[in-house]
Design a protein that fits this description.
The protein is an alpha+beta fold. It is built from five helices and 16 strands. Helices cover about 25% and strands about 30% of the residues. The strands form five sheets. Strands 1-6-3-4 form a four-stranded antiparallel beta sheet.
Amino acid sequence: MHVVGIKQIIERALVSYSGVTTSAGGAGGATLVDSNLSIDYDGQTVLITSGSYTGQARDIDGDTSDGTVTPSSAFGGVIVEGTTFLILSGIPAMAEFDDIKGSGWTNENLTTIDANIDALMAVLGAKDTAAATGAVSGAKLAMAYIKQLVTLLLNATYGLSAIHTDLETVDGIADDIKALVDSAEGDGTPFSYLDAGEEQTVVEDAAVTRRRIWLEFSNRNMTQPGTFRVYRKVDGANYDLYAEQPVLVAAGEERAFDAVFTTNQAWKLTYEEDVDETVARAIPFNVITQVIE
């Protein structure tokens, strides 16, 4: 499957307008205001994408060409200046789903996808690290909206053939979100080199998926010379030395280093002091992993 970013998926399929509020909206979330909005999107759906009410979606009730968006029911509170939002048109509005509800019709495939979305959202939350915040936040927001659609579909009177197309769309978007999040993993917690000498593992990645690795590390806290080493399990079972970087601590010496490589096996970064550091020292490092589909 051809993988594209979630931003492109949303823009191509759903987004009529992307904006930022230019002043505070009405009391109690009655409106939002964007003075740059000059087109009428009455009857479409507005989705809040930042701030206290991120993820809230409402049908638009009234002309928006004057820059004021009136939701069919109020948002959770005042939409403040600087809030980002989307106006969506590529799906039926919430009111249109209300018109087709009623029979209690369900489909086991939809139910399965509904459960899978819950599981994926839990995984997204677990990956919400500092290095991945932007990508994960966008993916979580999109998944929350897709979850709303699937829930409404489960309660709607749809023919099986019409549902099939919707299922394929949701399933494809879920795959693309997974690829996006897998490409945004990172780790930046400093490793504490214990005052015990010998070679110690700074970070180890035991995954066996195809991936591109960007690794950076520093000896900025060390007071004695030492050696960084990168090992790789080329045969899938045994670590072989891939790169060795001696480091010094005198003024003017290099302190930051990196390594870039592609693998489908485990790898690790180690450090070994040449002279006793006398106390534990923190070794900063960062890892970015891009999964190759």
